[in-house]
Amino acid sequence: MEIYLVRHTKVAVPPGIVYGHTDVSLSDSFEEEAAVVRKKVEGICFDAVWSSPLSRCVRLANYCGFRNIQTDDRLKELNFGEWEMKSWDEISQDARSERWFEDWIHVCTPGGESFQGQYDRVSNFLDEICSLQKSRVLFFAHGGVLTCANVYFGKYPLEEAFKHIPAHGEVLVAEV
Questions:
Q1: CB proximity list for 11: less than 8 A, separation 6 or greater
Q2: I need a labelling partner for 26 at 20 to 30 A (CA). Which of 12, 33, 56, 117 fits?
């Protein structure tokens, strides 16, 4: 099976702001960026297409010509809980952040989840997808989700995940 993984395009959020689960708008350059993504998946026949339910992913999927997509909450970005829409500078002032920065894999963000929690839900989704009798599938998701997928496919260990976050609009392909 070939699995195509697409990260959403740039968002209209200032650099350094954590937006994870928040449904934020896309940047003004959306159509230009989306056209590049569309060319990368154009003409490829997919047996099924999934998307994170957040609008930044659904909108890209629709722009690329996919209307009959299935959304799945397991494809959402990391839930930063109380830290959503705060700057990293602001988060670093939170007394609870020190513990998270020391062990972001296992420690949950306040009211959110750990990276291990995100990895577990993405892995659960991928286990389900890999059990299907499909030749080629596509999903639109987030940088953290694509990073988890690459860990799942053995490209690098979980501890190195933040060193490999795909660019906005990047299309990855995995064979399983």
A1: 19, 24, 25, 26, 27, 56, 168
A2: 117
- Indicate the pairing of strand 2-7 with strand 171-175: antiparallel
Helices 143-152 and 115-130: crossing angle in degrees, nearest 10, is: 60
| CA 62-26-53 angle, 5° bins | 50
Q: What is the pLDDT of residues 60-78, one digit of tens each?
A: 999 999 999 999 999 999 9
pTM of the model: 0.96
The CATH number of 2-175 is: 3.40.50.1240
Which 8-state DSSP code applies to residue 38?
Answer: H
Is 105 buried (19+), middle (13-18) or exposed (0-12) by CB count in 10 A? middle
Nearest residue to 123 (alpha-carbon basis) of 92, 167, 158: 158
| pLDDT level of residue 134 (50, 70, 90 thresholds) | very high
